[in-house]
Amino acid sequence: MKKAVNDDIKKLIKSNVNKICYFVKWYVDSDRSEKSYNSEIKSMTQVEYETAMNDWIEREDVQEAIKAYLNQVKNLKMFDIYNSMYDKAVKKGDVNSAKWCEQFFKYFRNMVLSDIKLSIYYLIN
User: Fold this and answer.
1) Which of 48, 52, 75, 100 is most buried, judged by most C-beta within 10 A?
2) What residues contact 49, with CB distance under 8 A and at least 6 apart?
């Protein structure tokens, strides 16, 4: 397994936190096969594949954790793309890559501002 699920995702899970965190990460990062489950995380979750895929996956807290982890993975992939485009713009002088980076920065700034506004809203209410 690569990296552990962060604390924000752990807070979403209501019970069996450590076991289910392994499942959440595996569910997003793997091919979801029984063979993969048994070889990668069964010893850490201590439940059968069928239990995890039939019972755990239906839990609302697990679904929320999967969504949150998917969002983190998506953001990391976007930063990888950004870094690649930035390198093309800076090192190779690619104008289209520079324009892409500029648009990405505007999008990212708006996304961060929206998250801040949402956080403030929840703090107030």
Assistant:
1) 52
2) 34, 37, 38, 42
Question: Do the Cβ atoms of 97 and 88 come closer than 8 Å?
Answer: yes
pTM as predicted: 0.69
The amino acid that residue 63 corresponds to is: Q
Q: What is the DSSP string of 55-93?
A: TGGG-HHHHHHHHHHHHHHHHHHHHHHHHHHHHHHHHH-
Spatial separation of the C-alpha atoms in residues 123 and 94, rounded to whole Å: 43
3-state secondary structure at position 48:
coil
Placement of tokens 């093309």 in the chain: 88
DSSP, collapsed to helix, strand or coil, labels residue 103 as: helix
Q: What is the tens place of the pLDDT at every residue in 38-63?
A: 999 999 999 999 999 999 999 999 99
| Percent of the chain residues past pLDDT 90, beyond the cut | 57
- Look at residue 42 and give its three-state secondary structure: helix
